[in-house]
């Protein structure tokens, strides 16, 4: 039996994960902004489910909740940083409040959660962190620039701390799902006020497709969550876990194009180095 700490458990991947883990007998510390949304599970599973209110943008509260979880549960084996959402709209359309809130939630919230749990994981001799990123941490689409900024940012953060924390037995996986039929694309997506000038641009066309139901995700959220749970049994932990055929195809294409562009600039890159004789004479 493992004990899990999960953020963003009101719906989507977070809610599904809580249900699956409780069904298999694990303990879950679930956090969400409205704890009453898990009341049905609390009544069914009682002390197997620990619930606390948390908005990850409140760093002071976040630290208190983490402290309380470890105090109450003694040991937490897996931390799942799942809370997040997307702001949809061209960069020029976004409001200042939308920008701040998204960065505070997806990027700073994830960073601060990690910082809060690391001392406990070190003290207990190790643990596992699953950080929900996205295929959008490897690719980018018009009208989602801010979402991509947070996901590319969190990928860079974890690329660094994976090496920092490995000596303490802490293993980390960046989970990169494709789009899925969860609440993420509906209630968990904030839409900016549209500007007509973007109607015929790629951002506007994606807006129209989204409004008309033109995008149909193929990722099964229950299968995706099961893959996340199963990954905890793998050691060494996979650095990235890409989920969904659409995500695989898009990321594969993006990485190939990026590598081709890099190789085409090899001579330019090396030409910018110091000339050997010049360097020796300095």
From TrEMBL:
Pfam families xref list: adh_short
InterPro entries: NAD(P)-bd_dom_sf, SDR_fam, SDR_oxidoreductase
This protein's UniProt keywords: Oxidoreductase
The protein's name in its UniProt record: Short chain dehydrogenase
Top-level taxonomic group: Bacteria
NCBIfam families: PRK06482.1
A GO term, aspect molecular function: oxidoreductase activity
Protein family according to the UniProt entry: Belongs to the short-chain dehydrogenases/reductases (SDR) family.
Organism in which the protein naturally occurs: Acetobacter senegalensis
